[in-house]
């Protein structure tokens, strides 16, 4: 495995050189997880940054009655665990589960912090990453308060198309296979409510679901729905 090459694909180290990130290679350890396997749970102690070298994961939280809200979905190559790593509590803030078989490279906190202090561009990228997560969390919270389910579903589909979209005839296909229950967990809504919210979009040809993949056919109309606010 080309470890320096993998590190250079992450948002934190992308501005550096192979020689720069080669300093980190002796500090990396590898772990593998199967699809559906829990990687960590909210409240677990944290002492490392996890580089997702292969696979797909979801970060999620559970309510007291077991309802799931998906905070984020990440594909390789990416990083995860940075929030808990720098949080004063020293514990994980969300659950993380493998959607597909995953391989990780773990980088312990001490060598990471020392490296960031020697490489300001990487430190700046880390701060940008943490800031971006904070902004996304704020928008997600206000969206749940102010937007109706149809607007939240549309905004979630647009975000998925931007991050995981691939052009196909007649639109943009989200390459992740997502059930309506999973989309509901991303939009903080039940499967039943998501089904009702999506039905008119499907009927109007704005979106479709093909072999488990959502396809956005009319982005402009979906954006218009995403901008609508109100309550069901």
UniProtKB/TrEMBL annotation:
<dbReference type="InterPro" id="IPR036388">
    <property type="entry name" value="WH-like_DNA-bd_sf"/>
</dbReference>
<keyword id="KW-0805">Transcription regulation</keyword>
<keyword id="KW-0238">DNA-binding</keyword>
<protein>
    <submittedName>
        <fullName>Crp/Fnr family transcriptional regulator</fullName>
    </submittedName>
</protein>
<feature type="domain" description="Cyclic nucleotide-binding">
    <location>
        <begin position="12"/>
        <end position="133"/>
    </location>
</feature>
<feature type="domain" description="HTH crp-type">
    <location>
        <begin position="147"/>
        <end position="220"/>
    </location>
</feature>
<dbReference type="InterPro" id="IPR014710">
    <property type="entry name" value="RmlC-like_jellyroll"/>
</dbReference>
<dbReference type="GO" id="GO:0003677">
    <property type="term" value="F:DNA binding"/>
</dbReference>
<dbReference type="Pfam" id="PF13545">
    <property type="entry name" value="HTH_Crp_2"/>
</dbReference>
<dbReference type="Pfam" id="PF00027">
    <property type="entry name" value="cNMP_binding"/>
</dbReference>
<dbReference type="InterPro" id="IPR050397">
    <property type="entry name" value="Env_Response_Regulators"/>
</dbReference>
<dbReference type="InterPro" id="IPR012318">
    <property type="entry name" value="HTH_CRP"/>
</dbReference>
<dbReference type="InterPro" id="IPR018490">
    <property type="entry name" value="cNMP-bd_dom_sf"/>
</dbReference>
<dbReference type="GO" id="GO:0005829">
    <property type="term" value="C:cytosol"/>
</dbReference>
<dbReference type="GO" id="GO:0003700">
    <property type="term" value="F:DNA-binding transcription factor activity"/>
</dbReference>
<dbReference type="InterPro" id="IPR036390">
    <property type="entry name" value="WH_DNA-bd_sf"/>
</dbReference>
<keyword id="KW-0804">Transcription</keyword>
<dbReference type="InterPro" id="IPR000595">
    <property type="entry name" value="cNMP-bd_dom"/>
</dbReference>
């Amino acid at each position: 495995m080309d470890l320096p090459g993998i590190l250079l694909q992450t948002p934190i180290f992308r501005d550096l050189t192979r020689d720069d990130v080669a300093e980190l290679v002796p500090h990396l350890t590898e772990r593998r997880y199967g699809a559906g396997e829990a990687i960590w749970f909210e409240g677990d102690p944290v002492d490392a940054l996890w580089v997702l070298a292969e696979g797909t994961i979801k970060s999620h939280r559970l309510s007291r009655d077991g309802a799931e809200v998906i905070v984020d979905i990440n594909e390789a190559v990416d990083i995860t665990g940075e929030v808990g790593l720098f949080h004063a509590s020293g514990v994980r803030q969300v659950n993380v589960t493998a959607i597909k078989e995953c391989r990780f490279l773990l980088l312990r906190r001490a060598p990471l912090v020392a490296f960031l202090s020697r490489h300001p561009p990487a430190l700046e990228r880390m701060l940008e990453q943490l800031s971006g997560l904070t902004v996304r969390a704020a928008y997600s919270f206000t969206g749940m308060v102010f937007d109706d389910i149809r607007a939240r579903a549309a905004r979630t589909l647009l975000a998925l198309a931007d991050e995981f979209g691939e052009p196909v005839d007649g639109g943009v296909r989200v390459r992740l296979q997502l059930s309506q229950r999973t989309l509901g967990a991303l939009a903080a809504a039940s499967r039943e409510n998501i089904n009702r919210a999506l039905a008119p979009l499907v009927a109007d040809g704005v979106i479709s679901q093909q072999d488990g993949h959502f396809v956005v056919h009319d982005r402009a109309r979906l954006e218009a729905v995403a901008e609508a606010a109100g309550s069901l």
